[in-house]
Amino acid sequence: MKKIKGLVVGVGGQGIILFTRVLGEACLKADIPVIVSEVHGMAQRGGVVESSICLFGKSPYTSEGEADFIVAFEPAEALRFVKRAKKETKFVISKDPILPFAVKEGLATYPDLNSFFEEMTSYFSQVFLVPGEELAKEAGSVKALNMVMLGAATALEIFPLNREALVEAMLELLPEKLHQVNLKAFDLGFNYIKSIL
């Protein structure tokens, strides 16, 4: 099988590590070789969190121009990691910004998202903007953003996985009281992408 490499990025508290764990467990259940690596940048304080994922390969690190996919839980983080992309990279981006402390205090400015999204969609062939926060709230909890994004990424068939393997991994990793909300979040993300394909 062809090697698949990419990144899942965002800020601390968005559930990126759980996203990666569910994906990794689902791959193992499907007998797909997978390697993941996580980088936490002051995650508890809203710092950058980055997970590198590689299926059918030996190293998870994704160099410049090497990513097959980038899943960004926060739009400015997609901008931060855009150099790792190539023309064919598939982007799944939650379009809800999380303003850093410096921006809130007036010490820095947040990127102009409209021009950023226009540039992204004009250069890269597959950029999907997801109303992640809205869908997570519809599922029952804004904390379910990670499962919205997992559903959305899976809808693009980036990963050779079926829904059953992903759901089984999710249910094993989450406490039972969170199953219903997260299943709904996954399906909302999945169906959102399918509706615009």
TrEMBL record:
It comes from Thermodesulfobacterium commune. One of its GO terms (molecular function) is oxidoreductase activity, acting on the aldehyde or oxo group of donors. Residues 12-190 form the Pyruvate/ketoisovalerate oxidoreductase catalytic domain. This is Pyruvate ferredoxin oxidoreductase. InterPro entries: IorB_Oxidoreductase, Pyrv/ketoisovalerate_OxRed_cat, Pyrv_flavodox_OxRed_cen. Keywords: Oxidoreductase, Pyruvate. It comes from the Bacteria. Gene3D superfamilies: Pyruvate-ferredoxin oxidoreductase, PFOR, domain III.
